[in-house]
Amino acid sequence: MTDLSLSPAHRLLALRKRLTRLKGSNYDISNRCNLKCEGCLYFSKPVDQRITAEAKISAWDDLFRAEAARGINFAYLAGAEPSMVPEHIESAVAHIPQGVIFTNGTKGISSDISYRIHVSMWGLGETNAALRGADVNRKALRNYAGDPRALFTFTISALNIDQIVEAARLCNDNGVDITFSFYSTTEQYNRQITQSTDSVDPYFRVGTADNDPRHTQDSLALARERIIDAMALFPETVVYSLHYNDWISQPIDKVYAFDEAGVATNCGNRLSNGFEHFTSDATRSKSKCCSPNLDCKDCRAYAMGWATYFNRFKAFKGDSDNLEAWIDGLYTWARMYLPKET
To answer: Is residue 15 one of the residues assigned to a domain?
Structure first.
């Protein structure tokens, strides 16, 4: 918990002692999923670029053992859908003590698994069904109601802003935390939405010029208002930072610097300094980041955004109010990714 009696410098030192011991890497442990989410960050790319192989458990066990020997002590488990390969999750936990699992929540993950579990939520009812191919919230909440590992992550698009408060209420009623991410698109999705031809891509069904899930500055501002409403009504349920929100909601060229190819050069989630991305065949990726399909100029996804926010200390340290809010933001990250303190 945050000790507000400490000075900002002492609070930052205490938090950094906790966080700097973490050394993480990202693992796509599955290339299968039971949903078809609009603009899926995993599948929304040309078919000939998709990795079709999924390594056997022996390969993952060898990899996680080697990663632990490399000093990795925090695993980001993603995919497609990691809950479809529980044996791969068990292998990670056997070798790497802490981590987070990004899941759609449709398959429960054993209570023996200690990692934090981030359950994606893309809206409510018909909106959720349209964006994901099925409305799975009821099943996900049934699987994780009252589970201290669970953090539901509501992906805010331009089409579901009016559902933010009700989603927070639903999580509150089921005894789980909720946080927020902003819908971000892949390069392929952005190309497709500008085309007038019919699409046969199962991950591109909803988006049109008149029904666009992508954000504008106006939609981001409206989302902020609804987030404030949710935080006021359910302060113990909503795990979020308005300081982070305001930073990530700026025009994107104020968040990132881009090279000639449009790749963000100062993203905190780039593959560097020991942070690696392993694909579903258990081999090391050579791409820009752990979500190489993302269009950097449309990226406000929370995992990438928070990683970059971490690295912006110099931008906030000169102003005491900004520094205080940034430190609170780091405590928010700890609440999101680390086990709940008892």
So the answer is: no
Residue 11: inside a domain: no
Residue 6 inside a domain? The answer is no
Phi, psi of 108 (to 5 degrees): -65, 145
CATH number at residue 332: 3.20.20.70
pTM: 0.94
CA-based max dimension of the chain: 60
What token pair was written down for 195?
A: 């085309």
28 sits in which H/E element: strand 24-28
Q: What is the pLDDT along the chain (342 residues), one digit of tens a residue?
A: 445 556 766 777 777 777 768 899 999 999 999 999 999 999 887 666 777 789 999 999 999 999 999 999 999 999 999 999 999 999 999 999 999 999 999 999 999 999 999 999 999 999 999 999 999 999 999 999 999 999 999 999 999 999 999 999 999 999 999 999 999 999 999 999 988 667 788 899 999 989 999 999 999 999 999 999 999 999 999 999 999 999 999 999 999 999 999 999 999 989 888 899 999 999 999 889 988 899 999 999 999 999 999 889 899 988 888 999 999 999 999 999 998 764
Contact (Cβ atoms closer than 8 angstroms) between residue 332 and residue 250: no
Whole-number CA gyration radius for the chain? 19
Task: Identify the domain containing residue 38 by its residue range.
Answer: 24-337
Residue 17, in any domain of the structure: no
Rounded alpha-carbon distances, angstroms, from residue 56 to 61, 177, 288: 9, 34, 26
Cβ partners under 8 Å of residue 63, min gap 6: 27, 55, 278, 282
Domain count, the chain: 1
Instruction: Characterise 313 by phi-psi region: left (phi > 0), alpha (psi -120 to 50), beta (else).
Output: alpha
